[in-house]
Write a structure and sequence with these properties.
- With 156 residues, the chain is of the alpha/beta class.
- The chain is built from five helices and four strands; from the N terminus they run E-H-E-H-E-H-E-H-H.
- Strands 2-1-3-4 form a four-stranded parallel β-sheet, with helices on both faces.
- The chain is globular and about 55 Å long.
């Protein structure tokens, strides 16, 4: 589903756990639709690829003040395994997204959940549970309103 406009949001969805990704996206999309915000969803293989996809979107004018989309929502799931890879993926994906958001002044809602088990992932992702996709969308919308507030205040 793709809808675009001046207040549009780009959803970058890590597809490593497809069913969890679908549920996170469902929560985010319900929140966006409930606020009449347009969106476009793109897919990447996993959480580590989200910062690069976000960076490419920024570099090509796809996201940002003058871009096709004003803001971004990052969605994904990282489940702890038996190696330290979990820590690397969780830390680096979050740091990359945050760094780009701050550097470019782009509102971002982060919905990359980090879990100990698939059961915990479902509880956190489920629209009927903790609805972390919806939370990420609400955070993004709050930051978009804050950006608009500061922009209007600076013109006075």
């Amino acid at each position: 589903m793709s809808r675009k406009g001046p207040n549009s949001v780009l959803i970058i969805s890590a597809r490593f756990y497809e069913d969890i990704a679908d549920e996170l996206a469902r929560g985010a999309i319900q929140e966006l639709r409930g606020n009449d915000v347009e969106f476009e969803e793109i897919a990447v293989p996993g959480a580590l690829e989200i910062p690069l996809a976000f960076s490419l979107a920024l570099a090509n004018g796809f996201v940002g003040r003058a871009g096709r989309h004003r803001a971004c929502i990052a969605l994904g799931c990282v489940i702890r395994g038996q190696t330290s890879h979990f820590d690397i993926v969780a830390r680096e994906s979050a740091a990359g997204i945050s760094q780009l958001a701050v550097q470019h002044g782009v509102p971002v809602g982060s919905g990359i959940i980090t879990c100990e088990s698939m059961e915990q992932a479902w509880e956190r992702a489920s629209v009927d549970g903790r609805n972390k996709g919806g939370d990420a969308a609400r955070a993004c919308l709050t930051l978009m309103r804050l950006e608009q507030h500061f922009s209007l205040a600076s013109r006075r």
